[in-house]
Amino acid sequence: MTGTHQEGGDGARRPRVDLSALVRARTHHPEAIAEAAARRARRPLLRENGRLMIVAADHPARGALGVGDRGLAMANRADLLERLCLALSRPGVDGVLATADILDDLLLLGVLDHKVVLGSMNRGGLQGASFELDDRFTGHRPEDIQRLGFDAGKLLLRVDYDDPGSLTTLESAARAIDGMAARRLPVFVEPFISRRGPDGRLRNDLSAEAVTRSIAIASGLGGTSAYTWLKVPVTENPDDMARVMETSTLPAVLLGGDIGDSPEDQDAAYEKWRGALQLPTVRGLVVGRSLLYPADGDVAAAVDTATGLL
Predict the structure, then answer these.
(1) Cystine design at 125: which of 54, 132, 169, 275 (Cβ 3.0–4.6 Å)?
(2) Could you give the percent of the chain with pLDDT greater than 70?
(3) Number of CB atoms found within 10 A of residue 201's CB
(4) Which distant-in-sequence residues (6+ apart) come within 8 Å of 148 by Cβ?
(5) Which range, of 153-167, 173-187, 255-269, averages the lowest pLDDT?
(6) What DSSP string describes 152-205?
(7) Poorest-pLDDT segment among 36-45, 49-58, 254-263
(8) Diameter of the chain measured on Cα atoms
(9) pLDDT-derived band of residue 160, with 50, 70 and 90 as boundaries?
């Protein structure tokens, strides 16, 4: 289902996805997805170095299609899949985080062997919606992740002290963590303290105090934390990260987020990640848009730079 075409300055070739072949498989052989999942060659969550480099692509299902000032950058599915296939082919990339539709495509494309696969669990809080903080679990369930032989799950936990929808999310997140732990499956919890501005837009607070508080809340959810990982942002002032990460003993990965649309923004993000990766609880990176849609268009180079930080 793939060919190749040129991508990036180092000669890396971006696979060209045959969209028609994917649609034919989905139309005539929907069972092919489960069959591909069943024969997928698996690997441990962590290799010998104890580090993780995961490429994230779960944004579209929340209606978050923008990258920098490109409002619909992630809307072209074939283009997104080609970028993902290239990223997954790069040395040092351990796996992918995505929703069911994207992971199903990647299974049909045969690119998930020996990769860590994280299913995205709650996608109900659509970007910009009035119910954004009532973030229900409309993606992978624990039983789906187990049935498909995936390696872990991920959930987003945004807490606004002024929005009662946050309580629904907290309770459902705790039950999801319990469900994953019962199956001995890791779950990556991405916590934020969030607030609505005068324009009604939801914004995540990246101050040291807010990130500290969010980590403390997330670490205590569920009946056990044995299988819980944290997925955390770098604070506004990167120098605060050492103190912030003292809040929990849970292993953590850094998230990327939308870092901007210029090479300077990209370089600044790499430097922030580089410093935080030295902290004892930080085990890796989960980065999406900034690597898949870099300012200079060179996906391979962006991914290679990020893996080099590990």
Answers:
(1) 132
(2) 95
(3) 11
(4) 34, 37, 103, 119
(5) 255-269
(6) EEEEEEEE-TT-THHHHHHHHHHHHHHHHHHTT--EEEEEEEEEE-TTS-EEEE
(7) 254-263
(8) 54
(9) very high
**Enclosing H/E stretch for 53:** strand 52-57
pTM exceeds 0.90 for this model:
yes
CA angle 100, 172, 115 (to 5 degrees): 35
Q: Does residue 309 contact residue 277 with C-beta atoms inside 8 Å?
A: yes
Report whether 137 contacts 126 (CB < 8 A).
Answer: no
The tokens 């990965």 sit on which residue? Answer: 253
For the chain, how far is it from start to end, CA to CA, in angstroms?
A: 32
> Could you read off the pLDDT of 206-228 as tens digits, one per residue?
999 999 999 999 999 999 999 99
Q: What DSSP line would sit under 200-227, residue for residue?
A: S-EEEE-SHHHHHHHHHHHHT-SS--TT
DSSP state for residue 52 in the 8-state scheme:
E
> 162-166, 184-188, 275-279 — which is least confidently predicted?
162-166
The answer to whether the CB of 102 falls within 8 A of the CB of 84 is: yes
Q: Could you tell me if residue 254 is left (phi over 0), alpha (psi between -120 and 50 degrees) or otherwise beta?
A: beta
pLDDT at residue 258 greater than cutoff 70: no
Q: Which residues contact 87 (CB under 8 A, 6 or more apart)?
A: 55, 93, 96, 291, 292, 299, 303
Six token digits for residue 209: 């105090």
Instruction: Specify the 3-state DSSP secondary structure of 5.
Output: strand
- Do residues 96 and 84 lie in contact, with contact meaning Cβ atoms separated by under 8 Å? yes
- The predicted structure's pLDDT at residue 13: 73
Q: For residues 64 and 102, which has the higher predicted lDDT (pLDDT)? A: 102
User: Cα separation of 304 and 48, whole Å?
Assistant: 19
